[in-house]
User: Fold this.
Amino acid sequence: MKDTIPLGRFAGVRIGLHWSVAGIVALVAVGLGVYWLPVAFPGHAPVAYALGGAVSAVLLVCSVLAHELAHSVVARRNGVVVEGITLWLLGGVARLRGEARTAGADFRIAVVGPASSAVLALVFGVGGWMAVRLGADELIVAVLGYLAVLNAVVAVFNLVPAAPLDGGRVLRSALWALTGDRFRAAVWSAWAGRGFGFLLIVAGLAEVLGRSTGGLWLVLVGLFIVNMASAEERQARIGVALAGISVGDVMSSPVETVEARQSVEQFFRDAVVSHRHSAFPVLDEHGQLRGLVTLQHLREVPVEVRGGTALGQVACPVEKIAVAEPGEPLALVLPRMTQTSRGRILVCSAGELRGIISPSDVARVLSDHSLTATLPAGADLTWEPETRPPPSDWWFPGQQRPR
Ligand SMILES: [Zn+2]
Assistant:
């Protein structure tokens, strides 16, 4: 989900809209403004219904945003980097980089989403009750009631103990705390997720056969959950297979480095023949790390400018390189490989460069564990984005629409 319209930052978190969010806004606005409100509360001006529908749609999207922000803020407090939030057709996604370090953090990051939806349901509910007491227009009461019910539905639905729903994360954290094995816990909660997804598909198809188009939404959400749960299971299985293997076990060490001042032409003429690797940390004259170059990218430098181009100029800058410590579990640092287009992880400890991990190092370990089939072919391992489990949330538009 990359094609997003940036909305700016809130509480330090980047927020974007995927174009598909327009579909859900339209569905809610039309569902309420054209169908439900005029039928349930006749006698108002058409513009009042349209306004009610539009305000409901916008506040619903804001509610989902609040839910995702809650995940994001708690994730950051627990040391997990948040890439941003994307709002789309089926709700929202808070994209987290990396995983919680403890079962407790995993639990907190997951449970705060439904908790915030429950609080919103309460706020809208109390607002509706006060609107009644103050004798406000019935359309205002209806909109507040709709938002209270929908936020309650979001809270309850996302608490179903099935990955990738928040409840699946809660289940995973509980199993993790009980067994001490985060990856096995993730496999089990992914199984629950697949089962729940299939259940939704069957329920949706039954509704469609009963001539209700609402079933199509269930089928769509069910398919999505099955897909996400399967991807999570694949990743968790890699984690199970790599249990006990640390970064230090697979890294190439010592690391072959190159000098930032050296030209690309000189590099190809003198050095590349003697080097066995395909990626090289770039050091300045003081021995400080300045970046990383790969053969693949150096070959893209046009031959005629290679003489006048220093390695330091074309290196991937330090802040964009993924870094790990030798003692970290390999399975946990693998997702970091996609953070840079270079696909390498530098291993440092106490500020010193200790080693480097390339996709082929990882592929070798995985093949030792008969896991080659789960990886794409080719030298560069591209960690599929969908194998990184973002907390995802779903909600049902038009729940309140009359049948
Ligand atoms: Zn959530």
